[in-house]
Amino acid sequence: MAFDERTEELALKAAQGDQGALEDLLRKIEPDVLRHASRFLPNRQDAEEACQDALLQVARNIHRFEGRSRFSTWLHVVVANSSRSTYRSLKRRSMEQAGELPQQRPDPRRTSVIAGSRVDILDAMEDLESRKPDLVQALVLRDVSQLEYAEIAEQLKLPLGTVKSRIHEARKQVRQTLGESYT
After folding, report:
1. Residue limits of the RNA polymerase sigma factor 70 region 4 type domain (predicted)?
2. Do the Cβ atoms of 12 and 2 come closer than 8 Å?
3. Which pLDDT belongs to residue 176?
4. Is the confidence at residue 137, as pLDDT, over 50?
5. What pLDDT score does 39 carry?
6. What are the distances in angstroms from CA 116 to CA 37, 121, 134?
7. How many CB atoms are located within 10 Å of the residue 148 CB?
């Protein structure tokens, strides 16, 4: 998600409390947020749920955007967290209903290689987060959001070397979780 200067200006105005700017901002970013959430979640309805959650988080937390980094960088973090949270929630609901209802959606691992790979990667990231939570955010920002290392360092307020080290270690851990078929 790379936005023009108008979007960045809207974000700054919204962060300062301008409700009109916030409404314009949310309308403008929605298609990009949905597209980005779709990178995480293989099912369109799930991506839409994550998109709505991310937009709600932006509306609630725009006052925290300080303008030190680009709004697009800040938004990457919000969308990644919302998408991962939606995935965890869907997984939890599915497990709770497993004995009560037949599975309504086909297992994406059986219907699409790409969708199945995304689910496997989300599972691997969830596993990594439970074991080494400090590694996940840098990995998501680099490999999913495709931010530059310097942008990640700025967003996470970490030295560049620490960011590179975390990404390297996170990739190694995820590869181990995924096994031979993903290397």
Report:
1. 137-173
2. no
3. 86
4. yes
5. 85
6. 16, 9, 26
7. 11
